[in-house]
Design brief:
2 copies of one chain form a homodimer. Chain A has 367 residues and is of the alpha/beta class. Helices cover 33% and strands 18% of the residues of chain A. The first copy, chain A, has an 8-stranded mixed sheet with strand order 3-2-1-4-5-6-18-19, sandwiched between helices. A 7-stranded mixed sheet of chain A has the order 11-10-9-12-13-15-14, sandwiched between helices. A two-stranded antiparallel sheet of chain A has the order 7-8. In chain A, helix 1 packs parallel to helix 11. The two termini of chain A are 30 Å apart. Chains A and B meet through helix 6 and helix 11 of A and helix 6 and helix 11 of B.
Chain lengths: 367, 367
């Protein structure tokens, strides 16, 4: 069974779906691994390191893709790559099928079996394959580093001979994996942190990291699978009033609220931004989904009356060494789940397998 | 006695020599304070905030300068500004007289009495005026934030369902105020830190911050005033051998070694850079003094075979809110030392006063 990894082609994508360690893992499971020359360089993984663990290094991309039983990738394959695959091949990548309809239709038309790491269910036995979580952890760390590098203030308390510097006040909106990591990183740097999430259950996690949980006195809004559910307009209006007051008092706001497959919830309005002090910073991790802040522009850093709004794209890719190491393990773990006796043999009755399958036998399996 | 602050004009300078708190301090000491309109904006200090504490806001710069008994500034005044001053006026700023000979001669020619915050001696009673230290603290923090934002690796240890991420190895060269703050900040972020300084006395400070001190088995090289002294060529050669080995093993190197008034010591050679792994990062805080690394270019971030070398200019200015707050207190404290009975009356027998005076009665007082 030939497992191949081609160079990622999306703008700004520095991650790679294989690292030396996972070449060894997959080889031990009976796969042969082939990697396009240079595919790991943006993540500081060299061809020599991959070859030393048993990978074939292939220079010609279409030859590589044509030979594949399985393709591992970070981003959805470009439609042109899908056309190179043998019918019956299998792909494992982030697919976000609600965004990449073209790729999904091309995969189905080619009778490619495809699995999306976006759709791995949040079960405890699926955690080793949970790439959304591993990458969200990195994004949460990135958001705080961006804030600390951008803000005109240092984060920690300093007591010096010239007097005391007060720590920054940092507010995290959304306390999922990214939000909790943002809280932890901001606390490491000495910020005074508060956080809010519609899921009241996150309050204990927030507090265990040394942050204050903003209790809005509203009902919890946890939905299926541990994600935040879509909110009513009435609830959102009440939430905005209370959040606005806390945003205005904060030096830094990091927003991380996302509902998979939906536009990002609007938590920070233009009015709230105008009420912030000059020199404040917002980092909006939901920028690519439309933004948690009304004024965010994805991929840009803008100034609105002295308030800097940073809308990073692909935040995890900023740390490609670790993002690739974790993602490569996630995708290798998912592939191992699909292999029995050295060949691909997915157990379609397994909830994990069924949930993350997007195309199979020429059909699109997701709504 | 009229104390004035004009807008800083140097490229990239975001600090300001006065904040609302020091307006109040100086007013209470019998001074009137006048500030050029907008001078504080880059540090997020508004004219209204300064006026509320008693400052006059003046729109016309040359009128402001002509009216001054005392000028407070961060950077040396441009020669054009010196020409506006009344003979007998007094200036307090960073002067680096070994760099800004033109300004020093202009100040002497104008019979301006000038004091340089660079030259405040390292005595414990002079600490409240020690702007080199207050700004070095900020620069050390900045260096690590730049490294953490630039590196392709996260700093902390992470234990996740997809396996463990090892913490970065960070080496700090030079363990003065900036180096110690770099160590503290890197430790906050979870890095494994080692450090080196020619002054063996710094070993205990390094260790008390949770870092490893590289003991080269060489004699201590502490010079006058607690600064590193200039080294012999022989010592430097031996030092390079030992440091090179540690540089090659580090993911991040932060260099902070400076000898005031001298070119920065060369600690990291081109060969050492070539021996580092791709994806490593060097932040060279001595960039403006010629660099501790042979390949550093001041004000640039360059790539040398996958190693990123960042050479920030004016690192403290990246956090202008806090840099200004501390600097404004330092310069106000120095001014208060020069005032007796509501008027300027420096005690020339005071070591602090004498050490930092650069020009007086038409003469240059420094070698």
């Amino acid at each position: 069974m030939r497992v191949v990894v081609a160079q990622e082609t999306a703008d700004g994508e520095r991650r790679v779906a294989v690292v030396p360690e996972t070449v060894a893992t997959l080889t031990a499971a009976g796969c042969s691994v082939a990697v396009q020359a240079g595919a790991g360089l943006s993540a500081h993984v060299t061809d020599d390191e991959l070859a030393a663990r048993g990978a074939d290094i292939v220079f010609e991309r279409s030859q590589l893709l044509r030979s594949a039983d399985v393709v591992l990738a970070v981003q959805p394959l470009p439609v042109g790559d899908v056309a190179q695959l043998a019918a019956g091949a299998t792909t494992l990548s982030f697919l976000q099928p609600w965004v990449h309809g073209d790729t999904v239709r091309a995969l189905a038309a080619r009778s490619v079996t495809s699995f999306s790491l976006d759709l791995v269910p949040r079960l405890s036995r699926a955690q080793p394959m949970d790439a959304l979580s591993s990458q969200a952890l990195i994004a949460g760390y990135r958001a705080v580093l961006l804030a600390a590098a951008t803000a005109p203030r240092m984060f920690p308390l300093f007591m010096t001979a010239a007097g005391t510097v007060a720590p920054v006040k940092l507010l995290v909106l959304g306390a999922g994996v990214a939000g909790l990591q943002a809280i932890a990183t901001a606390r490491r740097l000495g910020a005074v942190v508060s956080a809010y999430d519609v899921r009241a259950a996150s309050a204990d996690e927030v507090r265990s990291l040394g942050a204050t949980f903003l209790d809005l006195g509203l009902d919890s809004q946890e939905g299926a699978g541990g994600y935040a559910r879509v909110q009513s307009e009435d609830f959102l209006a009440r939430q905005r009033d209370v959040i606005g007051e806390h945003v205005a008092r904060s030096d830094i706001v990091v927003t991380t609220a996302a509902v998979p497959g939906r536009p990002a919830p609007r938590l920070v309005s233009a009015d709230m931004v105008h009420a912030m002090r000059a020199g404040s910073v917002i980092v909006d991790l939901a920028a690519e989904g439309g933004g948690n802040c009304e004024l965010t522009r994805a991929g840009e850093s803008i100034d609105v009356g002295g308030v800097t709004i940073v809308g990073p794209r692909n935040a995890a890719s900023a740390y490609p060494v670790h993002a690739s190491a974790l993602y490569a393990r996630n995708v290798a773990n998912l592939l191992l789940l699909l292999i029995r006796d050295g060949r691909l043999d997915p157990d379609w009755d397994d909830e994990v397998v069924a949930d993350c399958c997007v195309t199979r036998s020429g059909e699109v399996m997701q709504p």
